[in-house]
Amino acid sequence: MRSFSIHVGRLFGVEVRLHLTFLILPLFIFWTEYNAHPTANGPRDLALVGIVLACVAAHEIGHMLVARRAGLIPKAVILLPLGGVTVYDESRLEKPQSPDAAWQREVRIALTGPLVNLAFAFIAGAVIFTTFPGTDLLKWPFLQSSNLPRSLVWANLYIAGLNLLPAYPLDGGRILRAMFARKVDPAAATRRAVSISHALAMVLMVGGLFSNTWLTMIGLIIFSAAQLEERAVIFQSVLDNVRLEEVMLTDFATLSPADTLEDALDKAVHSLQDDFPVVRGSDMVGVISRQRILEALRAEGNGYVQAVMNKLFEVSAKQESLGSAFRKLTSRNLSIIPVVEDQRLVGIVTLQNLMHSMALLAESRKLRRDDQRS
Length: 374
Known about the structure:
Blueprint: E1 5-11, E2 14-19, H1 20-36, H2 42-69, E3 74-80, E4 83-88, H3 99-131, H4 148-162, H5 171-180, H6 186-210, H7 213-241, H8 261-269, E5 275-280, E6 283-289, H9 290-300, H10 305-308, E7 316-317, H11 322-331, E8 336-341, E9 344-350, H12 351-373
Parallel strand pairs: 2-3, 7-8
Antiparallel strand pairs: 1-2, 3-4, 5-6, 8-9
Helix pairs in contact: 1-2, 2-3, 2-4, 3-4, 3-5, 5-6, 6-7, 7-11, 7-12, 8-9
């Protein structure tokens, strides 16, 4: 998610990120406007980009509001020039009771985005007709920086129409995937939808080379969005199918509640760990982080680990999935989960270790699948 996007803020508590294709859009608009005139107006070109961004944001807000009502809590959204890719909070995910219920929910959420854009296009058109009666909204080109009010109408219409294409993760592709998911598992359904999306994106990119460069841009955006979703599916597969015993750290340092903070810091200096289980005999009694040790030393001077350790912690079994551990870490803002077997500490999982393992496992599965395709 963070590899090809940048953080721009939060909206209704949801992290908002811009995909790199959105950063290419100003250059693309400037280039196409210059080739058409041949002059370009920088402020108007940026205003046109702003219009597209506002239309996409309205589209995604519609999705998020309906998703919340359906029990899906958005955690982050990546905005692309045609729409967005939403990441939901797995720890609060409400799964439908049947494939038909999942299908109905997906269709409702998917259709909301285009309907929001159509509503905004209708409202903008009505306002323009009322304010400027002589405006010709049907004059070509529809999307042009020289006429921003007309561009506002057509940007909404274009985004609504393009999102109905059967290219995942556009809304039409989401409906297609939901249809596949009624017969196969979600991962297989997503792979089918992504394959169709890749094929359509290639057709658009090649077709744009011989007709309209905007088609090439649209194909590139669809291809990039499909790649994002494919990676998300691979990560979800790793979360669901890999067990903690496969990735947990078995060679780790522990602290005693009787250790002084200076002794604990000395152990931390010689360890790659950021978080430590605190063990008394064979019993685990707490956890403490390197940062907490430093903060306590600065604030109170040398003391004992027992006085500053966190006595509230979660434990997991070796057979639990990565998804289970990840939900515990993120939903309760933890940094370490001890792994126990027969009430004995056999390993630890930290957020840093978990993210690193997930990335490697996801990349490994992607490489294996690519080898099978070739």
